[in-house]
Amino acid sequence: MKVLGIETSCDETGIAIYDGSSNKIISEKLFSQAAKHADYGGVVPELASRDHVKKLIPLLSETIKESGINADALDGIAYTAGPGLRGPLLTGAALAQSLGLGWDIPCVGIHHMEAHLLINLLEDPAPSFPFLTLLISGGHCLIIRANNFGEYKVLGQSRDDAVGEAFDKVAKLLDLGYPGGPKIEELATRGDPNAFNLPRPMTKEAHLDFSFSGLKTAVLYAFRSEKNPSDTFKADLAASFQEAVADTLFLKSQKAIAQNGLDQLVIGGGVASNKYIRKKLIEGLKGNKIFFPPLNRCTDNGAMVAVTGHYRLSKKNISSNIVIRPKWNLSEL
Amino acid sequence: MTKELETLHEEQTVVAGEDFSKILAVKKIDRALVIFLEGDLGAGKTTFTKGIMRGLGHEGLVKSPTYNLIEIYETEQLKVFHFDLFRIKDPYELEEIGIREYLEEPSSACIFEWPINAKSLLPEPDYQVNIEHLKETEPESRKITIK
Questions:
Q1: What is the pTM for the complete model shown?
Q2: Do A158 and B96 touch (CB under 8 A)?
Q3: Complex ipTM, two decimals?
């Protein structure tokens, strides 16, 4: 079965085609709007939405052309139905359902987070159920136990700011620009990660929830304490912040592994592309099997939607209503 | 009526939000109550909102709406739309997410963080809450002004 996947839940417009018989993505295109958002110091949802409209059809044509197959060889379509922003979600959903009607093939709305989990099954080697996943991005920070297809349990999540959001806000505070993650990572290479003693929030508690709001505030206090912050000062602060995040993620991952008696951990989401955090987790969690999807699969993309759609289409009855669920708990699947 | 109070640490900011929620709960009207929540990055705006939600009987998480733009809560007493306009540059963006529908919802409250980013499109607030850092020497202390 060949499935077309469409991702438009927030910033990224992504389209891909997955071939179930070879378990491969045969074509994929991604249009990132990060450059345009730079002017706004962050995500601009409705600009993103309008851009999805502009970008979807050209991306679709390119994806099909590059796949070497004709549209009539497609067996199904999948789109991200949630969670995400209403406008962007509706854009992708409307296109997917229209194509489904036009081409007379089934169309399914899928859960964005399940897509982030299932894309990992394309890796070689791939994790096998049950496994743990740490999802770290701009809008999310969660640890999930994946017992089987469609059976997921959220073990812990951020109680306030998502980890990527903390990166963005600290970058704003230090006047580094957007996107915050890469800017801080770059500046941190020149700083001392132990220069500031910043908190590792909620790492003493047994639960697996996160909190990054306090860490952001601690960076603010440190920054304010210096009247004339030099470049070295800022680099040290960025490095110390990144170290505190890496350490927190490591401690929580370690705890999740121990509490669940599982030794497979998949780490995905935009923040997983931070090389410092990767290194820290790989070194700290030695002896376990740690999986990182390739960098281009860490951020939102169409491939993960196509893969998840393939699984959902081979299981469920499909409705032809344009359904989106801006708020959608992964445990409800 | 202007009310000023000082808090020494985070939990007291939550309690201040909790107290404020009592005013909201009794003052239901045929549109949304509009609350502006102002203060710098890290001042405790989401912390204060946490207190409001706790006061209204919400037991789940109160997460930062920065990325999603809006978080929606339904309690027995009030429906709350928690907006964060931190990333909004052009007020017209709010028009496109259907801001007017939220503002017209009876027995609800719209809480806006960073209202300054869309002032020309927002109505005059029913309440204005300002959170400021109080003393350099005590970084966790805050002055909260409610108008």
A1: 0.83
A2: no
A3: 0.81
